[in-house]
């Protein structure tokens, strides 16, 4: 295809990093690349917090389920959906912002995801590896307090960045025919295609773990989605001024 598409298709989560530092100049370049992502109605609703304090790194690793690479990675960033600066923008014009709308939550969160993916791609283009850390939402209120987040700001996820010290296989994705539909959602072949995909993922895990793990994609998903999924999130988000209407 071309080098850009090759880079996108070679994405892997990296959880082991060398001790080689990442310069602040590179970090600035990555975040600047994130700022160039598409943003809904030009709201620019993502704020990035670079965590250098070792104590805070340790606490964030604990909040994320004791994921040690949060502590060990040369760079750890927290991506926050941020509507606080928009409130300030309204105040600069003696206006009161109407907040709490679900649409504002949606657009701010999407802005964060688009921003972060630009950062990830830029990092990988420089030979760096990344892994997203959604686990910080396990104890999201504690993370917010630790980072002094005001109302209308919430941490969406973290990201570890560094030079890779491992080379895992690329994890196979769902068949394109399951994801790309034409004119209608209905596709009677989905179940058959997903069953075939289950065999591919089962073999992927078997190969990756030396036979210690054999699990299909549908088994993994059904195991995850038959349990509560961070039920504290709604009340937390409402306490921050989101999802009120």
Topology diagram in text:
Elements: H1 3-9, H2 24-35, E1 46-50, H3 54-63, H4 69-72, E2 75-82, H5 84-91, H6 102-125, E3 129-133, H7 140-146, E4 153-162, H8 176-179, H9 190-208, H10 217-224, H11 233-239
Antiparallel strand pairs: 1-2, 2-4, 3-4
Helix pairs in contact: 2-6, 3-7
Strand order of the largest sheet: 1-2-4-3
CATH superfamily of the largest domain: NADH Oxidase
How can the largest sheet be summarized?
4 strands, antiparallel
Supply the number of helical segments. Answer: 11
Q: What is the highest CATH level, the class of the largest domain?
A: Alpha Beta
Count the domains: 2
Distance between the termini: 45 Å
Estimate what percentage of residues fall within beta strands.
Answer: 5-15%
Secondary-structure class = alpha+beta
Count of strand segments: 4
Model regions low in confidence, pLDDT < 50 over at least 5 residues: none
At the fold tier of CATH, the topology name of the largest domain is NADH Oxidase
H/E element order: HHEHHEHHEHEHHHH
CATH-defined architecture of the largest domain: 3-Layer(aba) Sandwich
Organism: Neptunomonas antarctica
Keywords: Flavoprotein, FMN, NADP, Oxidoreductase
Domain Nitroreductase: 10-163
Family: Belongs to the flavin oxidoreductase frp family.
């Amino acid at each position: 295809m071309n080098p850009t598409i090759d880079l996108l298709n070679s994405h892997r989560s990296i959880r082991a990093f060398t001790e080689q530092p990442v310069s602040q100049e590179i970090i600035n370049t990555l975040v600047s690349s994130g700022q160039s992502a598409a943003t809904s109605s030009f709201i620019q609703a993502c704020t990035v917090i670079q965590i250098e304090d070792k104590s805070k790194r340790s606490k964030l690793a604990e909040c994320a389920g004791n994921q040690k690479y949060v502590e060990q990675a040369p760079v750890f960033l927290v991506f926050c959906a941020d509507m606080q600066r928009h409130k300030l923008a309204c105040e600069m014009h003696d206006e009161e912002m109407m907040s709490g709308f679900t649409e504002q939550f949606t657009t701010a969160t999407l802005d964060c995801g688009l921003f972060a993916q630009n950062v990830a791609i830029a990092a990988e283009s420089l030979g760096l590896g990344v892994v997203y850390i959604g686990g910080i939402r396990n104890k999201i209120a504690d993370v917010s307090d630790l980072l002094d987040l005001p109302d209308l700001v919430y941490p969406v996820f973290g990201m570890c960045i560094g030079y890779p010290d491992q080379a895992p296989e690329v994890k196979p994705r769902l068949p394109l025919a399951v994801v790309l539909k034409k004119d209608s959602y209905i596709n009677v072949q989905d179940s058959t295609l997903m069953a075939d995909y289950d065999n591919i993922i089962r073999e992927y895990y078997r190969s990756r773990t030396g036979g210690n793990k054999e699990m299909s994609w549908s088994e993994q998903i059904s195991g995850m989605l038959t349990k509560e999924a961070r039920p504290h999130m709604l009340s937390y988000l409402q306490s921050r001024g989101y999802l009120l209407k």
